[in-house]
Amino acid sequence: MDMGQCNDAYSAIQVAVALAKAFDCGVNDLPLTLVLSWYEQKAVCILLTLLSLGIKNIYLGPTLPAFVSKNVLNYLVENFNITPTSTPEADLKKILG
Hints:
There is one protein chain. By secondary structure, this protein is mainly alpha-helical. It is built from four helices and three strands. It has a three-stranded parallel sheet with strand order 1-2-3, with no helix packed on it. The chain starts with 8 loop residues before the first helix and ends with a helix. The mean pLDDT is 85.
């Protein structure tokens, strides 16, 4: 489901929270993936907000933000299952299995 631009992430989280409540589970237990595209600096604030909420399984791209060094990326991958985007076909294959 396309929820719009990165600044519409709040709406996506509200949908995820409602689904988690309806299915009596946590947001990260749902089969959902969030993809943030880095076209504006406000996406960094949105990412930090999502991380502070404990949201996992986020795809980032088409390029990683400048502050994401190799060590930072490793931490994000290990703790939040962050995935850099690749090609649409490869990403869909990962998401859909």
